[in-house]
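TICKET: design request
STATUS: open
ATTACHED STRUCTURE:
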């Protein structure tokens, strides 16, 4: 008699099974949305701040504003006063010595380079430098690799690829796993920012691969 009383009723079992199935469907649907990352959903995960200065400097330096936002997101997570172990400062993680070199250029940014924790200053110098790297290396992936690993390293990797008679490829030629991951994340996030903030971010630049521009060199 006691054993019979503790045995689950068939109706309770069915309800439990239905609840589990519904939870599974909700979880599967949620994972599908998370993987596809539609714009409305991406806004919950990918913040955007300082749109006026991002759009202004991206336009000035012929960059996609979504790309600039992606660099900020990956580099600093939008924390303006962050300082890396290597000494890089601010939203776009500029090294102070790099900012000082940029400040000596004929077409230098107007704000002084000693306030890199100011978001406007960091974005101004970071976009200048990113444009410089695109002009020097001819493609966004290579420019991003140089932004992360340093131009000297990327030049060595590009020269090695050239000696082998093939174009430079980030996944094949970059020796640092961190840098390969950085490039992948920025390119992924740029596409997400473009979907998530089509109104807030200015006009897109076609593609994220090659952009035209005049070559500049840092005077040392």
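STATUS: resolved
RESOLUTION: sequence designed for all positions
ATTACHED SEQUENCE:
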């Amino acid at each position: 008699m006691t054993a019979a009383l503790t045995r689950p009723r068939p109706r309770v079992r069915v309800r439990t099974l239905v609840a589990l199935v519904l939870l599974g469907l909700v979880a599967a649907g949620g994972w599908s949305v998370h993987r596809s990352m539609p714009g409305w959903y991406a806004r919950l995960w990918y913040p955007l701040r300082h749109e006026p200065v991002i759009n202004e400097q991206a336009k000035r330096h012929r960059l996609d504003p979504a790309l600039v936002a992606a660099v900020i997101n990956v580099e600093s997570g939008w924390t303006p006063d962050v300082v890396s172990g290597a000494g890089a400062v601010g939203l776009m993680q500029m090294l102070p010595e790099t900012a000082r070199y940029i400040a000596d250029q004929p077409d230098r940014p107007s704000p002084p380079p000693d306030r890199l924790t100011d978001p406007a200053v960091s974005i101004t110098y970071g976009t200048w430098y990113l444009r410089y790297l695109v002009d020097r290396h001819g493609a966004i992936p290579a420019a991003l690799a140089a932004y992360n690993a340093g131009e000297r390293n990327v030049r060595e990797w590009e020269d090695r690829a050239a000696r082998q008679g093939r174009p430079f490829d980030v996944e094949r030629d970059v020796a640092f796993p961190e840098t390969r991951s950085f490039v992948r994340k920025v390119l992924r996030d740029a596409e997400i920012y473009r979907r998530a903030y089509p109104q807030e971010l200015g006009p897109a630049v076609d593609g994220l691969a090659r952009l035209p521009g005049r070559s500049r060199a840092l005077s040392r």
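CLOSING REMARK: The two ends are 93 Å apart (CA to CA). The chain is about 60% helix and 0% strand.
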